[in-house]
Structure formats: structure tokens, C-alpha cells
Write a structure and sequence with these properties.
Layout: H1 4-33, H2 37-63, H3 83-110, H4 114-144, H5 148-159
Helix pairs in contact: 1-2, 1-3, 2-5, 3-4
């Protein structure tokens, strides 16, 4: 049995993961509107991963005899100034998700809920990868600055993410 407090924060995290998916789809739509289809493809794959994260927590809560409940997902922004602006927002968002996961780990540790702590270790490791991959793109966008050629080269590279 899982505590009500852990059940609550895991439900909150399900909502946060679905919001992340929603946010990344909004970013993908922005990129589609600017004809940066490689960036859009990258974001669409990212959105799918975030949905999978939510479902992973959903399954875990059910296995622990917890109650899953869904809340409204807030509306994400839909306009950005540039691809750089999008990835700056993405990086900040991923850092917030990392902090949220870490808070849940701390809570689970405090309650001596070792099963939840163990389950969340995958998310801790995943967030390291998430932040790193976004930061790599962000740093490249900063190097590119206003180079359309550089932007198009990065767009073509990011479009290959579906091939992974």
C-alpha cells in the first residue's frame, strides 16, 4: 500500500508529465508553422516520451494499489520568438521536472518507501539525459546565432531523431 501523500505527489507528477507532452506538442506545432520540420520531429518524439513517463507512473500507482486521478492540463504557450527561445524554455522546463522528481524521491525516502524510491531512480537517471540532450541543442543554437545555414543544418540533424 502506498501512502496518501506519495499517491498525491505521484498523481501530480502524472499531470506534470502530460503537461510536458502537451508543451512539447505546442512547440512542435510552432516549429511546423515556421517550416522547421526537423525541430518539430524532435519535439514530437519528446512529447511521446513524456506521455510514456506519465503512463509509467500510472502503472506504478496501480501496482501499488494507489488511486490514479486526472486533473486539467494547463494550456501551454504557443508562440516563441525563435528556436533559441523554444530551447531556452525547454531547458528551464526540464530543470523544473528534475526538481519535482527529486522532491518526490526525498519524500519517499523520508517515508521509508523504498519501492517508490527505487521506482523513481529511473526518472532521476532519465532527467540527467533529458537535461543534457536539451542543453546540447541549446548550446548549438547559441553558437549558430543568426545563421540560417546553421539553423537549417541543425534542423536536418534533429529531423533524424525518428530514425533512432
Amino acid at each position: 500500500m502506498i501512502s496518501k501523500q506519495i499517491e498525491q505527489v505521484l498523481n501530480d507528477q502524472i499531470n506534470a508529465e502530460f503537461y510536458s507532452s502537451y508543451l512539447y506538442m505546442a512547440m512542435a506545432a510552432y516549429f511546423r508553422s515556421t517550416k522547421l520540420n526537423g525541430f518539430a520531429t524532435w519535439m514530437e518524439k519528446q512529447a511521446k516520451e513524456e506521455e510514456e513517463h506519465a503512463l509509467k507512473i500510472y502503472e506504478y500507482l496501480n501496482k501499488r494499489n494507489g488511486r490514479v486521478y486526472f486533473k486539467s492540463i494547463k494550456e501551454p504557450p504557443f508562440e516563441w520568438k525563435s528556436p533559441l527561445d523554444v530551447f531556452e524554455a525547454t531547458y528551464v522546463h526540464e530543470q523544473e521536472v528534475t526538481k519535482s522528481i527529486e522532491r518526490i524521491v526525498s519524500l519517499a525516502d523520508g517515508e521509508k518507501d523504498y519501492a517508490t524510491s527505487s521506482f523513481l531512480q529511473w526518472f532521476v537517471d532519465e532527467q540527467v539525459e533529458e537535461e543534457y540532450s536539451v542543453l546540447q541543442i541549446l548550446e548549438r543554437l547559441r553558437m549558430i546565432k543568426d545563421s540560417n545555414q546553421g539553423l537549417l543544418m541543425l534542423d536536418a540533424e534533429l529531423g533524424k531523431r525518428n530514425e533512432d
